[in-house]
């Protein structure tokens, strides 16, 4: 399933986030993911694994597992590279062993006047951080929203973010999951897709790569979409402001 962007290109609504993957696991994960059907990979210079992702992609392309034009590859401009975008982009391309990217995001945009409408706004959003008005604003202006951390992932990584809530253990999500015979993670992802947002969960586990991809063969009823609306806690897990920089950031 794909979404049309305002520049005429299409983006698969399910992507694999590669942040935090162990370098020695990446080749297997990417190969397995392509075999499962993932075509969209969310990368970034700051994830410091572009070279390993690039090796895995090169092998998949050379072996004929997938064609370049079937893939949608995103990378991101890091904060210290705002002054030399072309060089940073070329560096990502070299590491990823690609001739072109499908999407190049500013990893952490800072407030300034922009004259070009972006095709995609990648933001944290999941059932505990729904950001309904921002999602609607973007969609009204034909800016595709990509939901990063769509499982509230930092909450399942409390050692990294010190989170207290775990989205995929929410009792309501568990109840809805039982109703559809799915997992709470699948319900969170399907909810994201039905909001017309692209979702990019990360998993290093084969079983979960499969589980997260199996969200296109069922549909949540409106009554369940409405129930999930009620569990919003306006809870941001990516608390970047606590780690750095002293400026307002938007992600
Ligand atoms: N633009 C930005 O500033 C930004 C910020 C954050 C994230 N991102 C992007 O979003 C992607 C995803 O973010 P994220 O990793 O923070 O959060 P996430 O995808 O919401 O959650 C990932 C966590 O959930 C676990 N998980 C995955 N599938 C699961 C399942 N079916 N059941 C139970 N647990 C499951 C994973 O563990 P296992 O790996 O052990 O399965 C991992 O700990 C990143 O890789 C990155 O590409 C972008």
Automatic annotation (TrEMBL):
- Which InterPro entries does this entry report, sorted A to Z? AKR, Aldo/ket_reductase_CS, NAD(P)_OxRdtase_dom_sf, NADP_OxRdtase_dom
Listed GO MF terms: oxidoreductase activity, acting on the CH-OH group of donors, NAD or NADP as acceptor
- TM ranges are none
**Residues binding substrate, per UniProt:** 107
Q: Keywords in alphabetical order, please.
A: NADP, Oxidoreductase
Q: Which residues form the NADP-dependent oxidoreductase domain?
A: 113-232
Catalytic site positions: 47 (proton donor)
Question: Which superkingdom heads the taxonomic lineage of this protein's source?
Answer: Eukaryota
The answer to whether the entry has keyword Oxidoreductase is: yes
User: Per the record, where is site Lowers pKa of active site Tyr?
Assistant: 76
Q: Which PANTHER family match?
A: 2,5-DIKETO-D-GLUCONIC ACID REDUCTASE (PTHR43827), NADP-DEPENDENT OXIDOREDUCTASE DOMAIN-CONTAINING PROTEIN (PTHR43827:SF3)
Task: Give the family this protein belongs to, as stated in its UniProt record.
Answer: Belongs to the aldo/keto reductase family.
| Protein name (record) | NADP-dependent D-sorbitol-6-phosphate dehydrogenase-like isoform X3
Q: Which organism is it from?
A: Cucumis melo (Muskmelon)
